[in-house]
Amino acid sequence: MSASALEPAPPTGLPLASDDVPGSRQTWWFWVAFTLTWLGGGIAQGIASVAVPQLLKEWDPAQATGNLSVILTVGGAAILVTTPVFGRLSDRSMSRLGIRRPWILTGSLIALAGYLVQAVAGSMLVLALGVILVLIGMGAVSMTIHTLFADQIRRRIRAIMSAVTGAASTIGVLLGVALTGAIASLGQAGMFLIPGGLSVALSLTLFFALRDIHRTAPAEPLRWRGWLETFWLSPRRYPDFAWAWACRFFMTASIITVTSYLYLTISSRFGLEDPAEIAGVQTQATGAFTLMNLLMAFVFGVISDRTGRRKPTVVIGALLSAAGLVLAVSFGDVGFFLAGIAVVGAGQGAYIAADVALMTECLPSTEDAGKDLGIVALAYLLPGIVVPVFGFFLTRIGSPTGENFVALYIAAVVMAIIAAVSVTRVKGVR
What we know:
Elements: E1 6-7, H1 28-59, H2 64-92, H3 101-120, H4 124-151, H5 158-182, H6 188-209, E2 214-215, H7 224-228, H8 239-259, H9 262-269, H10 275-307, H11 311-330, H12 334-360, H13 369-381, H14 383-394, H15 405-423
Antiparallel strand pairs: 1-2
């Protein structure tokens, strides 16, 4: 991507650790819409964590955990392939809309189609199709909003913006969980269409607010090797990126292990069968998580930006998350469980305060930011495949119906610790 091909244009090879950005000066509406889009993505996660497992539990209680694992694995595989491709195409886009806005629009419409399919699904196969469409659509939007950290957000405020957007995403999850649980009585269509429509509408605000970069000349022809590089950045050439990627992968896998099965975990560990009761405890857990997440995200976001140090914040976040998971799984009492989830929220808040800033400062340059951040996206997409596969077997240790959630949480603890160790190997970022 040459500098002359873009308007506004970055200096060729501009390192992402620089405080310069290639994008235009944005209006206040962009910052609002940028945050709302992260909120919308969180709502989508909240919907999936309640509506999908609840529907599977209604259809076949004995196989709900296994069926959820299958759907999550297939959906994870779909976005694993498509999201980096979206990033590569975004860098090369010649659209009059810009290089990023077309993918916000496309992703939002695909997600909306997915919610429509889920609303009428009468079988696991159709439900899985709807889940896949939502994941692909939200994956395209997620690729875009991550790329905007390189396009539009200066280094000196990346940690605090990471905290703001992470907080918005966390609040979105809480809203998605609470809203989906509250309207469950309206039936299947209401559970998916009402919060799903809200999620899509929030994502589209960024489409209208963004002053996008425009490509003014075609990119060089992309050969097969270029397409293969869409999914690869050499660990030997860029070791800091590799270790930061590993940190994000294991941290994401740790939290997905908890959130993906939270509904079924609550039902099994506390003997709850009423969907309203289960959703109620899940809302409390998500609320406790959100409160601590917000507090720690802003505290550590400010500290990280003022000191310029990212790694200590990530380490603290990972270890706090591990400690919270141990507390949550050590006792069979709802109170201790909620306290543990609150500590996990504190750890995740500290982590997200520096996560995006760390990743952008480990990338080679702005020239292929969409492609490279598509590879970054793999670190939080790949766990969507790996976790359900391992979750399927871990929950079946000593439990034919898949209710050994203690084993699942132990695995999450181990992954959080690995994340803390991985980030210490990054040398080029403090």
